[in-house]
Amino acid sequence: MRSSSSWGWAGFVLGAVTGAALPAASQELRPVEVTLAQAEAAALRGNPALAAASARVEGAQWQARAADAFLWPGVEASAGVVRTDDPVGVFGTKLRQGVFGEADFAIAALNDPEAATDWTAGVGARWAVGDPTRWAERRAADHAARAAGAQRDRTAEAVILGTRMIYLQAVAARGGRAAVEAELAAARETAQRVDRRVDEGLATEADRLQAASAVADAQARLRLAEAAYQDAAGELSLQLGWSGDSIPVPAAGLPTLPDRSADPEAASERADLRASAAGLEAARAQVSARSAARLPSVEAFGQLGTHAPGFLDDPSANWTVGLQLSVPVFTGFGLGAGKAAAQAEARAAEAEHRDRVLRASVEVAAARRGVAATGESRDAARAARDAATEAARLLGLRYDEGMATLADLLQAQARAAGLDAALVEADARWRMALARLDFVLGAAPGATTTTDSDSFGGIR
After folding, report:
1. β-sheet bridge partners, residue 76
2. Strand, helix or coil at 78?
3. 444-454: pLDDT as tens digits
4. Would you call 358 exposed, middle or buried from its count of C-beta atoms within 10 A (0-12, 13-18, 19+)?
5. What is the pTM of this model?
6. What domains does the chain contain, in order, with CATH numbers?
7. Which helix (H) or strand (E) holds 199?
8. What does each C-alpha distance from 9 to 6, 177, 216, 391, 452 come to in angstroms?
9. What are the tens digits of pLDDT across the range 278-296?
10. Helices 334-400 and 132-199, interaxial angle, to 10°?
């Protein structure tokens, strides 16, 4: 706590300037109380990063659907018209149309036929009944879609974590403001005591000025605390995607977050690790696809077509069905290069996945330590605050009895208020550590949170 009167008056001036602008900037904003669960739901609805991740999931799912297309025969319809005087073309066209006659066997007619017109219509189908490459690519697309879905889940978890952190910062800022308000109330009560003692001739005018300085210093810091709270509420508004004439206000009390300190490390349940594992399987499937490209593939095909010399003439129909076996013999070393590239990508994905798993383990251990350390810090801060509050109360009694100086009383009150604010910060840090642990253990998006009746050291 700052006890210098010059520093206190400087803070008062700065706070007055800052606070004077607050009502003008926020007078049209309507405060709306939100619980942590409501804040999380609002953030999930309006977060642009999550919207982008959801769009990528949709795209990956459609890609997987496209990779399934080979399971069905492809059907194509066609229509057209051709006119030619090419001898071979005329000969074949008349045969297809069923209008070939004896006169067409004449040497002159064969060598220099009249142009023929062919109106065609048809429908054909091709079906990759045995293509190992497409089966492997189908598996790769399926793994890629699962990876995109898991990454979207992790993005949602990150949105929840960010919302919890910002929400707790707003709660802490409100608690800090309440601590300064309590200090200001104590300073004013002390100033009234001093006034009475001055009137009774038991204190000096210097004591009155010293008490007034303490009140002014508390007022200045209250202005700054209010500005800090307004800033925190503004950050929360941005996180929730709010705009217009409303500002979110954290609900009274403290949000209860799950304490998962004793939970086992379920790394496989973390969405980012599930995404990484699915990406690794997709890369391995691509290696299989490049290897399968060397294998024979079988394709079935069929076609039904009609041919007519005129648009309105009766057509002649014919059909074709068959199987085709294809074996790549030489591709300019493209297949080998493609497989080598896929293998390199798979090795990279495997190394990255191992690194993510190791980092996740380190993150969990660090988060557990953070919960333990911040919990101990909060307990110590509470004990210190309680002791300082009791000391300030006793010094107030001693001052009334003339057994303590005003400086001692003001110092005790300032220390109690400072430790009250420190408890606010310590409790907020502990709850933030719980949120972090929940995140690194793989918290499910939209986890339920409640609000209890406890408060920062009794401050609401």
Report:
1. 124
2. strand
3. 544 444 434 33
4. exposed
5. 0.76
6. 26-65+137-281+342-451 (1.20.1600.10), 68-130+294-327 (2.20.200)
7. helix 132-199
8. 5, 19, 7, 27, 39
9. 999 999 999 999 999 999 9
10. 10
